[in-house]
Specification:
The complex is a heterodimer of chains A (467) and B (155). By secondary structure, chain A is α+β, with helices and mostly antiparallel strands. Chain A contains ten helices and 20 strands. Chain B is built from four helices and eight strands; from the N terminus they run αββββαββααββ. With 155 residues, chain B is α+β, with helices and mostly antiparallel strands. Classes of the chains: A alpha+beta (467), B alpha+beta (155).
Chain lengths: 467, 155
């Protein structure tokens, strides 16, 4: 540590996640210095970085007069600090570097509803001249006052781990199992203890949480609008989004918004919270796509800054691709199943308690949007709500408990779209939501394309008239 | 002045070296020596200043910019002027440094979650103090007003 490091920029990769603001010093032609913070710098390659000059009017003017800058970076994992000297090389207004930087700026804008403010116009590319590590607890003679024995950073994903998870996913025969195996595998094989799987709804405007791992509440059925936050941005752009500085992004955005509001240039806006953790600092969201269609988003998050690398993003992209194909295959098979299939079925459950004895539950249903409440508490809405209402009505009228996916898909009261009807995911959503609530009504899978409605309470049905 | 001297602000410094090149470093404490015209005493990392070619007692005057940004709000102000009288830190400077780092690391911990023990690696052991004659002040808060002059900076 006592020796000054002289190398390329790849070793500083964690510094470019933006978890700690970058400092840039420039001088004008007459030698007057300027120093300011940058929210983030972009690593182009081992010898180049790119900066967006959004609010850097004085620095940009100085660089036009004297094209060199001194920049301070901090590794958020170790607080190791680096001084980097750079020289302006070129400005890009299109191409991969510009697109990558624009993607990052768009993510910040989407988190804060400031798409009109955060709009990248150009990316300035700088060539590395010199990089040195500033010794920790630095002394006057340039030596380090203390040498730290850091723990190694978290291991990245291996090809073997990704292959094992893909293999496990390939053995899943139904959506419920697939979802569970995917999120369990992310934790066991790829080291992501907190994850979310969301699917797109029938309108294509919202994503609903089908399952999650690592949170106090699973949040089944919670929604994210397409275009909002990291997850919504991944859905809107159909491209992965990786953030290693959520807290800094939020602070920076709040500050810029306040500045615009005080100037009267911007009305009050929204700040979209991340799902899951109250204060995540790192997050990756990757789209789940098959046959060119968006099916959902797979996301992981961490309270630590700069936790994820490009390798993590790549591994999740592979997993999401395998998931997408599996989901699409399961849905296609379900659509082709006969209305009443043969094959083994689970044994029937114990009979429900007769009316007037045992526990009771009041189910209130609003046909306008399918919103369904159990004893006054919101349960679910949309197709899943209408599905539960249809099942309970048939149970009440005919005593039915055994159903097939095929017949329910044909039920007009569900109001399913004709194409890509999403029935299986809505059934699993309902099943998981009932399980999460510990409801006296549940859905058990009894065979391929078949399920059972299990009612452990006396049910009162209460349909609210429209309007 | 409060923003410049607060322990809740992160201080960064830009210098112009003898060769006319920019040089970035940090500031670890600010004391107001005089308000009108504004004169500040800055605590700077000795090792980094040495790398920029500066030594105590060499009687050089050098252009310096100091930006102090509140850790939570990012409200920031930049002071520009000429620095001189570089000297080793005194006991009073050391006390200011201790008070500043305690507040600063606590604020960063509450705002960003970094543990103070980790943040302490960042702080230098040896400090030199410089006097800054402030000639101009600027609003450096991120946004459309960044870079706007603030009146009454000094002479």
């Amino acid at each position: 540590v006592s020796e000054v490091r002289r190398s390329g920029l790849e070793a500083l990769r964690a510094c470019f996640e933006g978890a700690v603001p970058v400092v840039i010093a420039t001088v004008s032609a007459d030698g007057t210095p300027n120093v300011t913070y940058l929210s983030k710098a972009h690593l182009v390659d081992d010898q180049r970085i790119a900066l967006s000059n959004q609010f850097l009017s004085k620095s940009a003017k100085n660089l036009a007069e004297h094209p060199r800058a001194s920049v301070l970076f901090i590794d958020p994992r170790t607080m190791a600090e680096f001084r980097v000297e750079i020289t302006y090389e070129r400005t890009e207004r299109r191409g991969p570097v510009f697109e990558q930087l624009r993607h990052e700026v768009d993510a910040i804008a989407a988190m804060t509803g400031m798409e009109d403010v955060f709009r990248l116009r150009s990316a300035d590319v700088y060539r590395l001249e010199h990089v040195e590590q500033i010794p920790s607890a630095e002394r006057a003679d340039g030596r380090a006052g203390v040498i730290w024995d850091d723990e190694p950073a978290r291991d990245g994903p291996t090809m073997a781990a990704v292959a094992e998870l893909a293999s496990r996913l390939g053995r899943c025969a139904d959506l419920d199992t697939l979802v569970g195996v995917a999120l369990d595998g992310l934790e066991q094989l790829l080291g992501h203890p907190r994850s979310l799987l969301l699917l797109i709804d029938e309108t294509g405007e919202r994503l609903f949480t089908l399952a999650s791992r690592g949170y106090d509440q699973e949040g089944v059925g919670s929604e994210v609008h397409v275009g909002e936050g990291v997850i919504g941005t991944a859905a809107r752009t159909a491209a992965p989004v990786r953030v290693g500085n959520a807290r800094q992004m939020a602070k920076y955005s709040r500050s810029v918004r306040a500045s615009f509001e005080s100037a009267g240039d911007l009305g009050p806006g929204r700040e979209v919270p991340f799902p899951g953790l109250a204060q995540p600092d790192s997050c990756i969201a990757v789209p789940i796509r098959a046959l060119g269609h968006l099916l959902g988003v797979l996301a992981v998050e961490s309270p630590l800054p700069a936790e994820y690398t490009a390798d993590d993003e790549a591994a999740l992209t592979v997993v999401a691709s395998v998931l997408a194909n599996a989901i699409e295959t399961i849905r296609a098979e379900a659509r082709d199943e006969p209305a009443t299939g043969a094959g083994p079925t689970a044994p029937p459950p114990a009979a429900a308690p007769p009316p007037g004895t045992g526990p009771s539950v009041r189910v209130r249903f609003f046909p306008a949007d399918g919103s369904t409440f159990l004893d006054g508490d919101y349960l679910i809405k949309g197709v899943a709500g209408r599905l539960l209402w249809s099942l309970l009505r048939q149970h009440a009228a005919e005593g039915r408990t055994e159903f097939t996916n095929r017949e329910m898909r044909l039920d007009p009261s569900l109001d399913l779209p004709d194409f890509r009807d999403n029935f299986e995911s809505r059934l699993i959503l309902l099943k998981r939501r009932l399980d999460e609530r510990g409801a006296p009504v549940r859905i058990d899978k009894t065979g391929r394309g078949r399920f059972r409605l299990v009612v452990d309470a006396s049910v009162t049905l209460d349909e609210q008239p429209p309007g | 002045l409060e923003r410049l001297t607060s322990g809740a602000s992160s201080g960064v410094v830009g210098l112009c070296t003898a060769e006319g090149e920019p040089f970035a470093t940090r500031c670890w404490g600010v004391r107001v020596l005089r308000e009108e015209p504004l004169r500040l005493r800055l605590l700077l990392p000795a090792g980094s200043l040495a790398r920029a070619g500066l030594r105590p007692g060499d009687d050089r005057r050098f252009a310096l910019a100091l930006t102090a940004a509140h850790v939570v709000t990012l409200h920031a102000v930049q002071a520009k002027g000429v620095a001189h009288s570089l000297e080793p830190a005194t006991d009073d400077d050391e006390a200011l440094f201790q008070a500043y780092t305690t507040t600063f690391f606590d604020t960063v911990n509450r705002s960003d979650g970094y543990q103070p023990e980790l943040l302490r690696r960042w702080a230098p052991v040896d400090l030199w103090a410089a006097t800054l004659e402030v000639e101009a002040l600027f609003d450096q808060t991120p946004g459309p007003a960044a870079g706007a002059a603030i009146g009454g900076g000094g002479r």
